[in-house]
């Protein structure tokens, strides 16, 4: 975890971290229950993996990570949002910096926030909605993504395997808004 000053701290707000590695590994799903939750394996090849960070027995934050060898060492800092954090979790998070308060949040949806407008979209709802799409709608969403993506948008597409994945947190504002509006018209987000 990184605090508001950029200093690293043990990720003690999580009680379990599960790495979902490439299926070619002998043990592709690896679980760690103590910080630093380091997953150390040897192998070859580059692949995308997901890391499930549990802050309660059932509640988790999933982070997509592109494992590559373009640099010897690289760090990727991702913002993490917790849904309905417990008081204990909030106390741990306060050690890293201030938390938003009710006074900081807009009172109604129509009121402009001081934060970036992309924060008004719920990325978990977007992800859940995309999983519910039929094939034709999914193709439309892929077209929207390709039309509005930026150079920073992380997309992995394997046409032969029929797989398409996107890191929602790398989408530019215009793509997030367009995707949200499309899913909203379908009645999948609100």
From TrEMBL:
Q: Where in the cell is it found?
A: Nucleus; Cytoplasm
Sorted alphabetically, which keywords does the UniProt record give? Activator, Chromatin regulator, Coiled coil, Cytoplasm, DNA damage, DNA repair, Nucleus, Transcription, Transcription regulation
> Which residues, if any, are the signal sequence?
none
Record GO cellular component, one term: cytoplasm
Q: Which biological process annotations from GO are given for this protein?
A: chromatin organization; DNA repair; regulation of DNA-templated transcription
Region Disordered, as annotated, extends over: 96-116
A Pfam family the protein falls into: YEATS
Q: Where is the YEATS domain?
A: 1-96
Main location per the UniProt record: nucleus
Report the InterPro entries cross-referenced here.
Sas5/TAF14, YEAST_sf, YEATS, YEATS_dom
Q: Which family does the record assign?
A: Belongs to the YAF9 family.
Its job:
Component of the SWR1 complex which mediates the ATP-dependent exchange of histone H2A for an H2A variant leading to transcriptional regulation of selected genes by chromatin remodeling. Component of the NuA4 histone acetyltransferase complex which is involved in transcriptional activation of selected genes principally by acetylation of nucleosomal histones H4 and H2A. The NuA4 complex is also involved in DNA repair. Yaf9 may also be required for viability in conditions in which the structural integrity of the spindle is compromised.
- Domain note: The coiled-coil domain is required for assembly into the NuA4 complex.
Q: How does it assemble?
A: Component of the SWR1 chromatin-remodeling complex and of the NuA4 histone acetyltransferase complex.
Q: What is this protein called?
A: Protein AF-9 homolog
Organism in which the protein naturally occurs: Parascedosporium putredinis
Q: What is the lineage of its organism?
A: Eukaryota, Fungi, Dikarya, Ascomycota, Pezizomycotina
């Amino acid at each position: 975890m990184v605090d508001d000053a950029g200093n690293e701290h043990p990720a003690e707000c999580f009680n379990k971290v599960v790495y979902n590695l490439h299926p070619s590994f002998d043990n592709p799903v690896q679980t760690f229950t103590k910080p630093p939750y380091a997953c150390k394996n040897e192998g070859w090849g580059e692949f995308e993996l997901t890391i499930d960070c549990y802050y309660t027995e059932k509640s988790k934050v999933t982070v997509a990570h592109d494992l590559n060898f373009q640099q010897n060492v690289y760090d990727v800092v991702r913002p993490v949002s917790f849904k309905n954090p417990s008081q204990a979790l909030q106390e741990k998070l306060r050690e890293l910096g201030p938390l938003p308060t009710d006074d900081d949040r807009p009172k109604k949806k129509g009121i402009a926030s001081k934060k970036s407008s992309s924060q008004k979209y719920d990325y978990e709802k977007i992800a859940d909605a995309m999983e519910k799409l039929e094939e034709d709608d999914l193709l439309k969403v892929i077209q929207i993504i390709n039309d509005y993506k930026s150079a920073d948008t992380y997309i992995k597409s394997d046409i032969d395997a029929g797989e398409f994945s996107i890191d929602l947190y790398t989408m530019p504002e215009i793509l997030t808004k367009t995707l949200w509006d499309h899913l909203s018209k379908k009645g999948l987000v609100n």
